[in-house]
Design goal:
Elements (H helix, E strand, L loop, with lengths): L2 H14 L18 E8 L5 H21 L2 E8 L4 H13 L4 E4 L8 H10 L3 E4 L5 H4 L5 E6 L1 H18 L10 E8 L5 H16 L3 E9 L4 H15 L5 E4 L2 H13 L9 E3 L5 H8 L6 E3 L2 H17 L13 E4 L2 E3 L4 H9 L3
Parallel strand pairs: 1-2, 1-3, 3-4, 4-5, 5-11, 6-7, 6-8, 8-9
Antiparallel strand pairs: 10-12
The structure holds beta-D-glucopyranose.
The site of beta-D-glucopyranose has 12 residues, from helix 2.
């Protein structure tokens, strides 16, 4: 950062936090904080799950404002899948005097530039949803991660699939006692894609169901890409596909789009399972198109991020936050089937 910009940040911080002699960022407060600024950058604003998480974040920020009387200004940037763009957004946010920056990394293996900037400017960073490796999070003490217990989602997805196979003989279309499956995977290298694929399949096997992998395809969390890949696999395997394990709901819905476009009667569809419990995903569970989903607690993650950002910005205590190793907040997942989907729809609808 240029010296000119650095001075401006100092002036803003000193204006905001009177009594600090030690520089910029979230330094010591000796007077009541009246307003804070939180910067957020997302890897792709069109990602269904991430955009819903940010909607919740904004709602919780308004609630916190009302509760505390502290004005909370939020700047949200879309990195549009470019790490260099995201790096310069972080630079801008730090230059703008953000007290905390929340980063949904584009490339979770490339956080170094952001971490260096954070340390230099003494601005804490909360990484979320796209998890950097532990060694990177250790590079500086004011780095945090908010996300979920990744492996749980795979286990739960596998449990849903295994239960369907055991309880509904129609799931085994060719009656050979083996669950023939395909996987629709998220981005290569994303912690959730790797872990979900591995644990969903191993859980089905552990539950005593024999499986046969027909194929897999990477569809980058994306509904349209999943539809294309599913159309290709339907061309190749047709009615042999008995199970679609999708790493997220959007890809499960893309598979369903392909089944509909191919005019396959719903009673001949494979079992489709997703993860996330996005609004559209929950609807598909409700109307029976998806056998189930695994709730990725966007409300819990958004609230944890907001609470952490607030405490860091106001010099409050982190003691009330459920943190592991003083750095991680991980929310649990939950299985959602047709019997409890209403509860989750209500939870989502309660949000403005
Ligand atoms: C979600 C996906 C989302 C991805 C983005 C995952 O945790 O399940 O829906 O696309 O995060 O990083």
């Amino acid at each position: 950062m240029k010296l000119g910009k650095r001075l401006i940040v100092c002036v803003i911080s000193l204006g905001l936090i009177v009594g600090s002699l030690s520089g910029c960022g979230n330094d010591v407060q000796e007077e009541e904080v009246k307003s804070i600024k939180i910067g957020v950058t997302v890897y792709d604003q069109y990602d269904t799950f991430v955009s819903q998480l940010i909607d919740r974040f904004n709602v919780y920020a308004s609630e916190k404002e009302a509760e505390t009387g502290v004005a909370i200004n939020i700047e949200v940037y879309n990195a549009a899948d470019s790490q260099p763009t995201q790096n310069s957004q972080v630079e801008t946010m730090m230059g703008d005097g953000c007290n905390v920056v929340c980063v949904n990394l584009v490339d979770r293996t490339e956080p170094k530039t952001i971490i260096d900037m954070a340390e230099k400017n003494n601005v804490p960073v909360i990484f979320f949803n796209r998890e950097l490796v532990a060694e990177d999070l250790e590079r500086w003490e004011q780095l945090y991660y908010v996300g979920a217990k990744a492996f749980e989602s795979g286990i739960m997805e596998g449990e849903i699939a295994a239960d369907v196979f055991k309880n509904d003989s129609a799931a085994d279309k060719n009656g050979d006692g083996i669950f023939q499956y395909i996987v629709l995977e998220g981005e290569a290298g994303h912690q959730d894609a790797i872990v979900r694929t591995e644990y969903s399949v191993s859980t089905i096997i552990e539950r005593g169901v024999e499986v046969e992998k027909l194929n897999y395809a990477i569809a980058n969390w994306n509904r349209a890409q999943a539809q294309t890949k599913m159309t290709q696999m339907l061309g190749e395997y047709g009615n042999k596909i008995e199970l679609v394990l999708a790493n997220n709901d959007d890809m499960a819905l893309g598979a369903i789009d392909a089944l509909k476009a191919a005019e396959i009667a719903p009673e001949r569809w494979p079992v489709v399972v997703g993860i996330d419990g996005t609004n559209v995903g929950l609807e598909a569970v409700k109307n029976g198109e998806m056998a189930g989903t695994v709730y990725n607690d966007k409300e819990g993650q958004a609230k944890a991020m907001l609470d952490l950002a607030y405490e860091l910005s106001t010099g409050g205590s982190l003691a009330g936050l459920d943190m592991e190793d003083g750095k991680y907040i991980r929310l649990p997942y939950a299985k959602v089937g047709v019997e409890d989907v209403e509860e989750y729809i209500e939870k989502s609808e309660m949000m403005p």
